[in-house]
Amino acid sequence: YGYHNHAHEFTTDLGGGKTPWDVLTSELDPRLVHLEIDIYWAVTGGVGRGAADPVRFALDVIRRAPQRVLQFHVKDRHLDGDMADLGTGTIDFRRIFDKHQVKEYIVENDTPDVTPRQTAEVGYNYLRKLRF
User: What is the pTM assigned to this prediction?
Assistant: First the structure.
């Protein structure tokens, strides 16, 4: 099984600074569950936590997880926090991809700037040209 994150796992304080992400990753059996990190939501969680470097926050989430990170949901982020088509927002994907390789990159955008087909093409073309 795979688990896909959102921002609230990183920003909700369950008491004593413990977050839902802390509970999930400590309880999920790494032999049975892998992680499918949504980079947009991890970065947004970093913004919500007041991280000086939200991309570093997302990288730390990936690095510290006891489960294997096998997939990335890849969607970009406008400065105002809305989702953006890949390569048109603020997330430095090369920096993330340089640090962690996955088996699958899933282009996703819940609020595309263009039609769904065009957003898929923008994402595909961005990822195809990105070198890491």
Answer: 0.94
